[in-house]
Amino acid sequence: MALDADVIVIGAGLAGLVATAELADAGRKVILLDQEPAASLGGQAHWSFGGLFLVDSPEQRRMRIRDSHELAWQDWLGTAGFDRPEDAWPRRWAEAYVAFAAGEKRSWLHRQGVRFFPVVGWAERGGLSATGPGNSVPRFHITWGTGPGLVAPFAARVRAAAARGLVDLRFRHRVTGLAATAGAVDTVTGEVLVPSQVARGEASSREVAGSFELRAQAVIVTSGGIGGNHELVRKAWPARLGTPPQKLLSGVPAHVDGLMLDIAGAAGGHLINGDRMWHYTEGIENWDPIWPKHGIRILPGPSSLWLDARGRRLPVPLFPGFDTLGTLEHIMTTGHEYTWFVLTQKIIEKEFALSGSEQNPDLTGKSVRGVLGRALPGATGPVEAFKRHGADFVVADSLAELVKGMNAKGGEDLIDEAELRREIEARDRELANPFSKDLQVTAIHGARRYLGDKLIRTATPHRLLDPKAGPLIAVRLNILTRKSLGGLETDLDSRVLRADGSPLEGVYAAGEAAGFGGGGVHGYRSLEGTFLGGCLFSGRAAGRAAARATA
Question: Are 512 and 531 spatial neighbours (Cβ–Cβ below 8 Å)?
């Protein structure tokens, strides 16, 4: 039977674009399939903040950050917590990825025109020991142009290859099966969906207009994870994180449905670490949603007081921005699925950022003037819009009024004003000195020793009940789905493996579908900036390996 292409790539997100670009550069003919319309080229990466994990970068050195491969690897191991037999390949992927992040990653991207915001962010700060989870130093490099700025060079390479006749872009093609000839997977079957003119990210029709069958020497699966499919999220939810939440917001569009994972599994691919997942605890309902249950994550600085639904402070070291999954695990033991930030106008102006390219028009639009405006008084426009319109925000001039609003939002009188006042006043007294026994206050002072935090991410320490810092603000925080940390097990050439460890001939996987490499390169937790980077690294590996195999 005649081949339709050398390689078929399933999924036109970042990993699929990178793999396709590498294949085309090697002269291979590629068919790139995606179930969504052309408007959604780039997938989830388009919506991202564009954060990338880099080690010992020029940006870090300019900010007086001393980083090294050894320190980054120490942080990765302490965060991943590899402890399973099936972590063999994920650990090897992690070693290779950290070396990539400390080596050619930045220069490779720089050659393609990618540039970075000069202030390096400090995500996932940890807060336990040197060998525990978290980043010891700031490593979160924001792409100039955010997610669209990172997608652009790879989309341009793919479109240029399409113009040369090497790439055939086929949107509205939903894969339903993989089949083999003589032991090697070489056939992709599926349904052609009706044309759709919906905007990027909006839910598109699943009406079927026809079917297709395509053949190639190799197939690369880059179809993403399960974050938009709450049924699958709850099914995979691990007991260590408690009972799955009844209410979940979606940090990704509905088409991130995970269906391709089972299709690849049915063809013989080994799925591992499905119980490892990455969901955020600082989700707020989008007042202007694009997809169903659309949530936005707050990227907080360290100063907000974090309370459970009853108004009790979360335990050390569960401060804003320190330990995502540790916080999630604790929340699910409290009997309620939501928490609260309590803060001031002074804090929201300096410390609140919103994840997502559309929530950062200055960075996404590469506006120097807009970015400089962040240093002026007042919160960013998108943050102020959420404060005015968001269903999760309470703004008040007094603590009594704030508590009344919080209890109204929660639907129960769970928060006692007197108890909360006692807690806040105790914290406020700790601010009379540059030292404190309150570890959150100590962490705030420590953050301001880093120039980047002092400039744009950490408010000057002040009393929450200081009228000059007001008004008071409370934000109800929900659980927000985001990433699958497990997936198809792959070797370092991105070849999908069978349960016995042998390659599933003809099949490769990259990006979230492969747990960002190996079936779970992050282990249990992420250091942040590593999801986009994992798509880049594994997509490149898959494209190059498939090109060699189809020579």
Answer: yes
CA 490 to CA 90: how far, in whole Å? Answer: 8
pLDDT tens per residue across span 190-212: 999 999 999 999 999 999 999 99
Residue type, 77: L
Whose CA is closest to 376, among 350, 339, 415? Answer: 350
For 322-360, what is each residue's pLDDT tens digit? Answer: 999 999 999 999 999 999 999 999 999 999 999 999 999
- When pLDDT is cut at 50, 70 and 90, the band that residue 374 belongs to is confident
Grouping H, G, I as helix, E, B as strand and the rest as coil, residue 175 is strand
Q: Is the pLDDT of residue 375 over 80?
A: no
Give Cα separations from 461 to 120, 346, 428, 471 (angstroms). 21, 10, 10, 16
**Within 13 Å of residue 86, how many CA atoms lie on the same side as its CB?**
24
- Which residues lie across from 211 on neighbouring strands? 191
| Helix (H), strand (E) at residue 328 | helix 324-331
Angle at 550 between CA 547 and CA 551, to 5 degrees: 85
SS3 242: coil
Look at residue 213 and give its three-state secondary structure: strand
Q: Does residue 509 contact residue 541 with C-beta atoms inside 8 Å?
A: no
Give the CA count within 13 Å in the CB-facing half-sphere of 160: 12
Please report, as a single letter, which amino acid is at residue 41.
L
Closest CA to 307 of 473, 477, 459: 477
pTM: 0.97
> How many angstroms separate the CA atoms of 82 and 65, rounded?
27
CA-closest candidate to residue 221, choices 8, 485, 483, 478: 8
Closest CA relative to residue 349, chosen from 389, 376, 386: 376
What is the residue-wise DSSP string for 298-324? EE--S-SEEEETTSPBPPTT--TTT-H
* Interior/surface letters 393-410, b for 16+ CB within 10 angstroms, e for the rest: bbbbeebeebbbbbbebb
The interaxial angle of helices 531-549 and 14-25, nearest 10 deg, is 30
CA atoms within 13 A on the CB side of 216: 29
Residue 189: the pLDDT is 98
One DSSP character per residue, 117-169 reads -SSPB------S-TTSSS-SS--EEEBTTHHHHHHHHHHHHHHHHHHTTSEEE
